[in-house]
Amino acid sequence: MRIGITTDENNNLIKLEDSRYFVIFDDETKKEEKYDSPAYKITPKGHARDVGMDELLKYKPDMIVITSDSLCKCTYAQSLLVNVRYILIDEKLNAKEIENRINEFKRNALDVLEPKLYNR
Fold first, then answer.
1. Lateral strand order in the sheet of 32-36
2. What is the pLDDT of residue 40?
3. What is the value of pTM for the model shown?
4. What percent helix, strand, coil does the chain show, rounded to 5?
5. How many whole angstroms separate alpha carbon 113 and alpha carbon 55?
6. Each residue's pLDDT tens digit, 72-104
7. For residue 12, what are the CA distances in angstroms to 21, 67, 73?
8. What CATH number is given to the structural domain containing 72?
9. Other Cβ atoms closer than 10 A to 62
């Protein structure tokens, strides 16, 4: 399963619009791919979320790790179209820590989100 994680320059989980990198972790092969996020340099940040989600989805994740402030209505709708599942994490973790605990997080993955997680 391919899992998308949005990170900063230190590989820490960060909301989509501020992401510097996309880490795509395959939990079956344990391989990791890292890509530049176009959201990093875009303003306004609402547009950065849209562009970032569009780019992240090109890497075909089955799940996306999000924070409670990662998505808006448009980015949520984009992700619903490709049937990704969501792993909600509001802890300060880096990508390696998430990868090491991925089975724990996958057990709590969500198919749909509550409106409070994307209504902004």
1. 32-36, 21-26, 2-7, 63-66, 85-88
2. 87
3. 0.94
4. 35, 25, 40
5. 21
6. 999 999 999 999 999 999 999 999 999 999 999
7. 10, 12, 24
8. 3.30.420.130
9. 16
Positions of E strands within the chain: 2-7, 21-26, 32-36, 63-66, 85-88
- The torsion of the CA quartet 62, 109, 16, 55, rounded to 10 degrees, works out to 10
Residues spanned by the domain of 59: 2-117
CA 76, distance to chain mean position in Å, is 11
How many structural domains is the chain composed of? 1
Please give the single-letter amino acid code of residue 45: K
Place of tokens 């909301």: 15
With contact defined as beta carbons under 8 Å apart, do 100 and 91 qualify? no
Retrieve residue 2's tokens: 């391919």
Q: Residue 82 to residues 42, 44, 61, 85: CA-CA distances in angstroms?
A: 24, 25, 9, 9
